[in-house]
Design a protein that fits this description.
Layout: H1 2-7, E1 17-18, H2 26-33, H3 39-42, H4 49-55, H5 82-96, E2 100-102, E3 114-118, E4 122-130, H6 135-143, H7 151-154, E5 158-165, H8 168-177, E6 192-199, E7 205-212, E8 217-224, H9 232-235, E9 237-240
Parallel strand pairs: 4-5, 5-6
Antiparallel strand pairs: 1-9, 2-3, 3-4, 6-7, 7-8, 8-9
């Protein structure tokens, strides 16, 4: 079955290699998690209607907020919501891959989507945003990594802004144009990786495109989801072009 799922990536099949356990970049850490993020895994944790409204262009609720019920699993962009990916990424890193993961809630030091500890107490801070959101929103998210007050962002050894979408053109546009510069923050975040993730509709492949804050794409990769029956090593497949 691992061979079958490898074929999904076509010509990449013979070039894939095992991901290093110790990540050297935020993209390395992300690549370890993506093979485990099937569609079912992504939507496994229910989210509130408030989280839904953050992704939808109009604050239109699928269920009444007054009832306290949960909404649909799909956003107007025909993908799960941003909170779904946040939850799934943190869960896979912590419970499947064994990293120590925290989700800070202090607005002063930074409410990072996820901070994973790895070798020698080093940390990797990851922030997720959907590609359908506006360019100013992308720049604002990136600027958090250079805010001297938000230590959960700027003190991390590895920093990654993860841009997720199903339209490759939109994802690439965001990767190229996101710098982290805003009216309040004129300098680019030091060491920040801008990582685009193009999701296939069934979530069986993730095409990863990485850039530094300059917007220049440095590397393209593809992670293929493996079936549950595959071994741990088979799931950690990572291709770097």
């Amino acid at each position: 079955m691992a061979e079958y799922y490898g074929d999904i990536c076509g010509l990449l099949q013979d070039e894939r290699e095992l991901t290093q356990r110790t990540p050297h970049t935020a993209a390395d850490l992300l690549a370890q998690a993506l093979p485990f993020m099937s569609f079912v895994t992504v939507i496994d944790d229910p989210i509130s209607t408030e989280d839904e409204a953050k992704d939808d262009e109009e604050e239109e609720m699928h269920m009444s907020q007054s009832t306290g019920r949960l909404g649909t699993s799909m956003s107007k962009a025909d993908l799960p919501y941003e909170a779904h990916y946040n939850n799934a990424l943190g869960t896979v890193l912590e419970h499947t891959l064994g990293y120590q993961v925290s989700r800070p809630e202090n607005p002063l030091t930074g409410k990072t989507d996820g901070v994973a500890k790895y070798t020698q107490r080093k940390t990797c801070a990851l922030e997720v945003i959907m590609a359908v959101r506006t360019q100013p929103e992308h720049d604002e998210h990136a600027s958090r990594f250079s805010n001297s007050v938000k230590s959960n962002y700027n003190k991390a050894d590895l920093k990654g802004l993860v841009i997720i979408g199903s339209n490759k053109g939109t994802v690439l546009k965001r990767v190229k144009e996101t710098t982290g510069k805003t009216e309040d923050q004129t300098s680019e975040p030091d060491g920040l990786e801008i990582i685009g993730v193009v999701v296939s509709p069934p979530h069986d492949t993730y095409e990863v495109q990485e850039s530094q804050a300059t917007g220049q794409i440095k590397r393209r990769s593809c992670c293929c989801c493996q079936p549950v029956e595959a071994t741990h090593e088979e799931k950690l497949l990572y291709h770097e072009a």
